[in-house]
Amino acid sequence: MHIRRRVATIVALVKEYELKLAVALVPSAENKADILKRVPRRWMTPQDPFDVTACSTTVDPEVEQLIAEVHHNAGHPGIRRTFYFSRRRVPTISKRSVSEVISTCNVCQSIDPAPAKWNGGRQNMANNWHGHHPLC
After folding, report:
1. How many domains does the chain have?
2. How confident is the model over 69-94, as pLDDT tens digits?
3. How confident is the model at residue 128, as a pLDDT?
4. How far is CA 136 from CA 120, 121, 124, 125, 127, in A?
5. 39 shares a domain with 13
6. Is residue 100 part of a domain?
7. What mean pLDDT is reported for the chain?
8. Greater confidence, 133 or 47?
9. Burial of 104 (C-beta count, 10 Å sphere; 0-12/13-18/19+)
10. C-alpha to C-alpha distance for 98 and 60, rounded to whole angstroms
């Protein structure tokens, strides 16, 4: 779809400005931009396939304890605010580590969410709790 739009733009410019265009195929071997982007295959394949290092992250127990402490002292404010308060103390804390710590928080797990969300509006009642009509 994008190619059609670009071609249509070029065709419109050719018609509007009465341009004469010539299109020539440049082989990849002669295209300097293509040569500069090419990476030799030997760079792409590791010498020993079992010698490839892997990257893995875990939450440091000290950082985990700091996040839990900040979360508890702030009153269990949720992931976003706990992340903000934790980053003020240790700037390298990730949102994923905060999320992992909060997902194991017993206090937060014990709080039941509201069963239904009230979107506002009026309740249809003839009288209020004092026995009067609501508009009186």
Report:
1. 2
2. 999 999 999 999 999 999 999 999 99
3. 62
4. 22, 19, 15, 13, 10
5. yes
6. yes
7. 81
8. 47
9. exposed
10. 11
Q: Is the pTM value of this prediction over 0.70?
A: no
Tokens of 1: 């779809």
Token code pair at residue 88: 């003020």
Consecutive H or E run containing 44: helix 41-44
Q: Are residues 27 and 65 in the same domain?
A: no
What range defines the domain where residue 84 resides? 61-110
| Diameter over CA atoms, the chain | 91
pLDDT (0 to 100) of residue 108: 86
Angstrom distance (rounded) from CA 129 to CA 136 = 13
58-71: pLDDT as tens digits:
668 889 999 999 99
- Structure token digits, residue 67: 């996040």
| CA end-to-end distance (rounded Å), the chain | 63
User: For residue 13, is it within any domain?
Assistant: yes
Q: Which amino acid is at 11?
A: V
124-132 mean pLDDT? 63
